[in-house]
C-alpha cells in the first residue's frame, strides 16, 4: 500500500525541483545516477530513522 505524504516543501517545491535538475545539468547518465545515489544517502542520513526510510523506499518502489 502506498503511503501518502504531505507536500512538506509547500510553495518551494518547484524551487527544489529546479535545483535538482540544475544539479544534473551536464552530467552523463552514469554521473547522474551516481549523483542520485549520493543524494539519497545524504537525505537518508539526515532523516535518520530506519523505519521511515524503509517506508519511503517501499512507497517509491510501488511507483516502478
UniProtKB/TrEMBL annotation:
One Pfam family linked to the record: DUF2783
Organism superkingdom: Bacteria
Name the UniProt record assigns to this protein: DUF2783 domain-containing protein
Amino acid at each position: 500500500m502506498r503511503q501518502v505524504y504531505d507536500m512538506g516543501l509547500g510553495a518551494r517545491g518547484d524551487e527544489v525541483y529546479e535545483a535538482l535538475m540544475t544539479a544534473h545539468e551536464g552530467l552523463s547518465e552514469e554521473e547522474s545516477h551516481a549523483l542520485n545515489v549520493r543524494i539519497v544517502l545524504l537525505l537518508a542520513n539526515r532523516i535518520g530513522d530506519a523505519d521511515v526510510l524503509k517506508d519511503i523506499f517501499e512507497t517509491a518502489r510501488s511507483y516502478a
